[in-house]
From TrEMBL:
Any GO MF annotation of the entry: ATP binding
Keyword list, A-Z: ATP-binding, Chaperone, Nucleotide-binding, Stress response
Superkingdom to which the source organism belongs: Eukaryota
Domain Histidine kinase/HSP90-like ATPase, chain residue ranges per copy: 104-266
Homology family: Belongs to the heat shock protein 90 family.
InterPro entries: HATPase_C_sf, HATPase_dom, Heat_shock_protein_90_CS, Hsp90_fam, Hsp90_N, Ribosomal_Su5_D2-typ_SF
Database matches in CDD domains: HATPase_Hsp90-like
Listed name of the protein: HEAT SHOCK PROTEIN 90-5 CHLOROPLASTIC
A Pfam family of this chain: HSP90
Amino acid sequence: MAPVLSRSLVSSASFISLSSSIRHPNNTVFNLRSVFLPQNNGLRKGFSCSGLKWKPEKRIDKISVRCEAAVAEQEAADTSGEKFEYQAEVSRLLDLIVHSLYSHKEVFLRELVSNASDALDKLRFLSVTEPSLLGDAGDLEIRIRSDLDNGTITVTDTGIGMTKEELVDCLGTIAQSGTSKFLKALKENKDAGADNGLIGQFGVGFYSAFLVAEKVVVSTKSPKSDKQYVWESEAESSSYVIKEVTDPEKMLRRGTEITLYLKEDDKYEFSDAVRIQGLVKNYSQFVAFPIYTWVEKSRTVEGEKKKTKKTKTEKYWDWELANETKPIWMRSAKEVEKDEYQEFYKKTFNEFLDPLAYTHFTTEGEVEFRSVLYIPGMAPLNNEEVINPKTKNIRLYVKRVFISDDFDGELFIQGFNTLFWA
């Protein structure tokens, strides 16, 4: 309990002593009115001011007012939350991610969307035996909203969410299969200097948010708990804070909302709505759940002026589905029609001609994958694309998420062969 503070406003006493009236030498009585005290007998029940609690006490012809700072201290403790220290391996990992691992910062969005997709998958699986987990919290989906004015990105999913204990376990520590294997793989690839997809492989992708964010705030609500919690940490910090959400306007029905407060150098690039939608289409186009991005649109409206109709174009913001194309390679080749292969090819590679030929096959063994190989309807116009030792025509997907298109040319004939690998 904090000590009780007393200050004198009109005397040097150890308590606040305010005379209820002042008698002038000519016997005129003046009633005391102070801006510090409530009027209309407000002192009878006490009052609060500036977070401090004031209590009245009568002393013959005076009114004493005592200030108890303990109340203010308690309120401050309630809003500051509980502080935790990162596990040592997490601190090492954060340092690696931010300072040395990735040359492409944009992968942070791929990782956050993949985590959101995993949370939705988990909820869908658990709801088979526990339908009550779904409740009335809406469809299973992901929404991404960027705010250029405030320099933020918010990724929201309606998945399983987390309890307070799960926040500590998932964001403050690393699973047994995580750090040791991750650091070992990083060491093995150090000489090659490759900018690979290790984060996605070892399930620690959340921390990639600090590639672009100076602060990350995670608000989450699990259907298994009545309470909602907020996890908050800053870049370069060795600790994080968890506190309960009590503001009704900030409550989630279910799921997780991650807000990134972008660094000054990354603010204008990654809070741009067009840039965000492009990253979703590039990395997460084939995620199983709908992904909506907040984008600026235009529409034509009609107005009447002097008995004539005039049209004008106005701008507005709305949600737009960013992942319409379905991954046909995940289906059996017997189930996919020819026009579906052709439409998929044109949408995915921005081609206007139908492919000259294609094949859809599955390989099983030590390495298993499904793939679709296309031969374009027209050969490359630039000969450099044919003889280039590195090809961008082979794209590797893991769990429907784009990982890399950086492969050595000897894998396939260069220039006109395109492979989807899952």
